[in-house]
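Bench notes, bay 3.
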Amino acid sequence: MKRRIITGLFIFIVILTPSISWAEDESLSEERLNLYQKTATLTQVPWSLIAAIDQYERNINDIDEDRVTGIQIDPDQWFGLLAVDENPSHYEATIQAFNGIGKDGDGDQYANPQNDEDVLFTFAHWLNEQLGKGISYEKSLAQYYDREKAAQIIKQYHELFNHYSTIELDEHAFPIPSYNQYSYRSTWGAGRGYGGRRIHEGTDLFASYGTPVRSTSYGIVEIKGWNKYGGWRIGIRDTDNVYHYYAHLNGFEDELEEGDIVEPGDVIGYVGASGYGPVGTSGKFPPHLHYGMYRDNGENEWAFDPYPHLKRWEKQSQ
């Protein structure tokens, strides 16, 4: 089963417009949640997993204006050998006769790949079929997207939605508590000498050793440990496919481990000057937090300037 390939034009547009609008209309989120829960009731696939799959696809695909959800199933998979005309609605029985996977989710006997209920029900039904063959949800998703990282990201979303019993996890916080002294400016794209010629992919926030560093988002701790460039660093992924990178730390918050769930404002570590060498190297530059943001587009990750987002979150915290 293959997913629709993202067009190069779409990727090009995304790269040129790195600003992210996290907040969504509450009624739209509620409508989506109702669809996820209805599908879960019909198929016994957890609503939080259905929501996670849809969240992943909405993050990497252009959403049809007539739809609420974003999962896209290739027409060849949906209709099988059935010759498809301009009308996308066909009886489920007809589609099944031509070895298509499209199913009726809203009870009208038609299976329409542009109908949100039909699409969610079809995908969940396919997952159950895979499970019946002894293939786990995670392995099925890795095969479907032809990418293990996709399955990993969806699993993280699933854990977050299940933990908080909501899909509205859009709040953010400034990484340095307001009662601490700090300074920063836009340093995106500046040259860096250590490790060869490269550009600065982030914003540096200067503060004293030991100043608390907070998570800016809800997310899962994906990476924690040493990197010769970033020193002691933490990577956290949120539900918008954004990877938040905190580097040059002096230490980590006690008991924080990879796989942990964090919230905006949770202390995750402390400002330091680590990095630019083997494990333990420190003091090659003034203490500061290097904060980076990377967007996953379904095929790879790319960095974008976090400065505008930091300014907005700083203003909101005042």
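Next record in the batch:
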Amino acid sequence: MTRFCIFKRFLWLGLVLSAPLWAQEYPARPITMVMPYAPGGPGDVITRIYAAAMQKALGQQIVVDNTAGASGTIGTAKVARSKPDGYTLLMIHVSHATNLAMFKNLSYNPVDDFEPIGLATEGPMVVVARRDFPAKDAKEFVAYVRDNAAKLSMGHAGVGSASHLCSLMFMNALNVQLTSVPYKGAAPALNDVMGGQLDVMCDQTTSTTPATTSGRVKAYLVAGKTRLASLPELPALPELGTSGFDISIMFGLYAPKGTPKAVIDKLTTALQAAIKDPDVKSRLGSLGALPVTAEKARPEFLRAHLKHEIETLNPLLIKAGVQPD
């Protein structure tokens, strides 16, 4: 046997033996978790909760990087361009799907340029109205909206936002058209509902629960198929004989395309540990959010969830006449 052949055999053997060792050593340095929105919002808080929990399981620090701007596309593109080694991750919600309809020339593909790790958290959404709204319960609310749609306004946090999608789905389910009023964020929209300048809004419980419990707005409906354990008095629209109103804000964790399966497996295991962490449950509960089930905190579920959001939510934006930038 020639020296060259012997060298090739040793080289091959070294690569075979080193691959499992490399996977076992991950992570060997701090990980960056990109949150593509500004600090201080619900998404930022959720990301930091999961970063703290997952670093316990991984044995390495996870640093949160708020690379905000352009509806989350700047931070998302940063992750798509990152080395696929498990050291740069993305935590993002529904905008990962809807930005396909919001922008003409995305520099990345939400499906093809990322490896899903799993869903992390679920934020239920509810429909609220000004506190002097004439309906006393959900049944009267739906009837009143149908009879007076042309006179009513429905605010949201901006075109393409979760609350905008929720409002479109709500109007589509009831087959009505309220006057849509965009705001720069959910907070100013909710302020106008509390002040009586705006009639109706749909938003996450993380925003609406404090205003509801204090009596500054009325809550009428859950945007889902069933009632929420945290708001058992609120019916879901199917209870009133109407379907098609099912949306919640779910944050998912991604890595760049090409990240080795062994690394994805380790990250999924750490995510699974995080959703069971009592501190995570407590801190999310204080925000009105929930950790997902173990079934949903897996790559295959997040992959299917993203596909479903693209197929169901983007047509709503197109139907509403949203023009991509």
